[in-house]
Specification:
single chain, alpha+beta, Glutaredoxin, 2 domains, five-stranded mixed β-sheet, two-stranded antiparallel ribbon, 53% helix, 12% strand
């Protein structure tokens, strides 16, 4: 006799969020409508936990070092910041942070206090002492075995295969940064400098892409795609965001980028090009992407400040893991 045991996975029970005349509305259906919002909250929780965890770690290393020397934490800080201050002098701190013109009080951020004023001296001293303590903590974190086990939330993968996209950087990298933006979006224009700085720092290790998104097919987006047809998308991208030819002036841009004028003008009037752009943007919206700028890192939506330092930190973590998540 042969007995065959078949194990099957029990299907997960779907949670009910509500009912309409006996028809059930499930929680996963609700979540699908607010996926992006849910991940924004998850990332906010992650950031808050990271800040709290690091504060506890900093307190712990100070306590361990003070106990090891048989002195109080206050004495440790006083001794060590004095030592660090001999190297990182206040004059160097002022110069490195461009404070020659004055300092700003955190409580009064719109007023500049000159360094030779009483208030200016007090604000500078407080800021400088915080800086020295940060340096001390950095030294102690390097000395002791620090391990932070909090994991960043993983948004779902966004499939951009086959979309109208433009690529530069290290093309075959397993790590990618995809910028979904609109030339006419003020926030995108402000973020441009940060994203350009990011490209300059990581272009030899990471794949960078751009996808256009706007409520309508704008002249700027249409021109950039037509320039792309002549192999000049990135020149158009930089020129449009740089602001020296904005709002768009087609003749000026054609001359600036040395495009074939007749070919470019035909493309700008092409229904097919407009249709391709519209279909591209519809596909993005079908995946819940409607806001610009939206950043995808390795095909997952990045929730965080659009600053080169913050995004760079995330990229460094991926690079340290060899591109795996």
């Amino acid at each position: 006799m042969i007995v065959v045991l078949v194990a099957c996975e029990r299907p997960k029970e779907r949670k009910i969020a509500g009912e309409v005349d006996g028809q059930k509305i499930y929680l996963d259906e609700v979540d699908n409508l607010i996926t992006n919002s849910l991940y924004e909250y998850l990332f906010a929780i992650f950031d808050a936990r990271s800040i709290a965890a690091n504060e506890l770690i900093n307190s712990k290393v100070l306590s361990m070092e003070a106990r090891g020397r048989n002195i109080s934490i206050d004495s440790l800080v006083l001794l060590e910041t004095a030592r660090i201050g001999k190297i990182e002098t206040k004059a160097k701190y002022v110069l490195d942070n461009g404070l020659q013109a004055g300092v700003v009080d955190e409580k009064r951020p719109f007023k500049l206090f000159e360094l030779d004023s009483n208030e200016g001296r007090d604000i500078l001293e407080e800021s400088y002492q915080k800086f020295l303590k940060v340096r001390l903590v950095e030294e102690l974190r390097a000395k002791y075995q620090i391990k932070l086990s909090l994991e960043r939330p993983k948004p779902p993968l966004i499939k951009t295969d086959g979309m109208l996209t433009h690529v530069r950087g290290k093309i075959n990298s397993t790590i990618s940064v995809i910028v979904i933006s609109d030339f006419d979006c003020p926030v995108c224009r402000r973020a441009y400098a940060q994203l350009r700085e990011l490209y300059g720092k990581y272009s030899d290790r990471i794949r960078f892409e751009v996808i256009n998104l706007s409520p309508d097919v704008t002249n700027s987006i249409l021109f950039s795609e037509c320039a792309g047809g002549q192999g000049r998308f990135w020149d158009a991208y930089e020129a449009l965001f740089a602001g020296d030819v904005y709002p768009i002036n087609v003749d000026t841009l054609i001359k600036k980028l040395r495009l074939k004028k007749a070919e470019c003008l035909r493309c700008l009037k092409s229904e097919r090009m407009s249709s391709d752009i519209v279909n591209n943007m519809r596909r993005l919206r079908s995946m819940g992407i409607e806001m610009t700028p939206t950043i995808l890192i390795s095909r997952r939506i990045y929730y965080g400040p659009i600053e080169s330092t913050a995004i760079g930190k995330h990229l460094n973590e991926l690079l340290a893991k060899g591109g795996t998540e």
